[in-house]
Amino acid sequence: MDSLDTQVLAAARSWAAAGHRFALVTVARTWGSAPRPPGAWMILRDDGQVQGSVSGGCIEDDLIRRAAAGEFVGTAPRLLRYGVTADEAHRFGLPCGGTLELVLEPAPDAGFLEQLAQRIATGQLVRRKVVLASGEVSLEGGSAGDSQQWDGQTLVTLHGPAWRLLIIGAGQISHYLATMALALGYRVYICDPRSEYADGWDVPGTERLAAMPDDAVTELGLDPRSAVVALTHDPKLDDLALLEALKSPAFYVGALGSTTNNGKRRERLLQYFDLSQAEVDRLHGPVGLPIGSRTPPEIAVAILAEMTAVKNGRNLPSTVAFADPYACRVA
Q1: Domain for residue 330, yes or no?
Q2: pLDDT for residue 188
């Protein structure tokens, strides 16, 4: 569940508490170039106010118009399709022939939304199931291997802190990385056994782990929605995290340091630790995309850009041709 949909859930609870009627709209399926991914949420209040989005704006405008015309009455969920034809796709601003299937719930149960929010707040992954034929809505425990399901009749969406980031080191780059990662919907953990750094950590919304880096990796039980970034620049600490993280199913493992230092790190991991060549080859080091980053916030942007590319299955550049003063990379 990304940060936008978390905001939608918070607004829905607020509106329900204030006595407003509203509809919940979920992106069930997309074809072509759709602006929002499957599972994205939007709520539409009885007075036309909107939170969240399911497209670039034109579909939202049409939903507001249809709601004002009284189309979305009752309680039964229904299926809406947009962009089935090229003309309709153009009219609704869907690029490249994009098509959307939306599930609209005219009157979602406020109690279920409250339960969902409470379970997410405790760190749980939750599957929300909506059956169109019966209107039945249910909440079930989710797991890291779950994904959205839609067969045209039953919609199952996954909610909760599905993406996690463990940062090793509480330095300046870590502050920016953690703040940006929170905005992208990650649940962020920080581990640094050095009190001179850890005691000054002050990024709200993150969780500190009082353990050595290797123990912190083990404690979290990394899954395919987890990432680990080692930023202490101290091999005694970074390597502890990496030797465990590279054996895990984490989708991304990165380490700060120059090309030369990361080359030496790879040699150490192969020679002195129980890691295979394939496991060591998973290391992103120097960490981050080569965007010419020089300052701590720019380096954080580079790291998150690379994490996002890996998460989304995009090809990455294979060479680096610039330097930064934090020795993240050298030419």
Answers
A1: no
A2: 95
Residue 105, pLDDT score: 97
Q: Which residues pair with 45 in a beta bridge?
A: 22
What type of residue sits at position 24?
L
**Strands, E assignment, 246-314:** 252-255, 283-284
Q: Is the peptide bond before 108 cis (omega within 30 degrees of 0)?
A: no
Low-confidence ranges of the chain (pLDDT < 50): 319-331
User: What tokens does 120 get?
Assistant: 């997410």
* Alpha helices, DSSP H, located in 158-258: 172-183, 195-198, 213-220, 235-245
Contact 103, 26 (CB under 8 A): yes
Q: Residue 260 is part of which domain span?
A: 164-311
Same domain, 148 and 89: yes
The dihedral through the CA atoms of 264, 229, 174, 215 has a sign that is negative
Contacts of 286 (CB under 8 A, 6+ apart): 255, 256, 257, 258, 259, 262, 320, 328, 329, 330
pLDDT tens-digit map of 274-321: 899 999 999 999 999 999 998 999 999 999 999 999 988 887 765 443
Instruction: Using DSSP, state whether 295 is helix, strand or coil.
Output: coil
pLDDT at 323: 37
Residues 103 and 136 in one domain: yes
Q: Is the pTM of this model over 0.85?
A: no
* Rounded-to-integer distance, Cα 153 and Cα 175, Å: 44
CATH of the domain at 275: 3.40.50.720
Count of domains forming the chain? 2
Q: Nearest-CA neighbor of 43 among 101, 120, 102, 117?
A: 102
Q: How far is CA 39 from the centre of its chain?
A: 12
Encoded amino acid at 206, one letter: T
* 189 Cβ contact partners less than 8 Å away, ≥ 6 residues apart: 164, 165, 166, 167, 206, 207, 208, 209, 216, 220
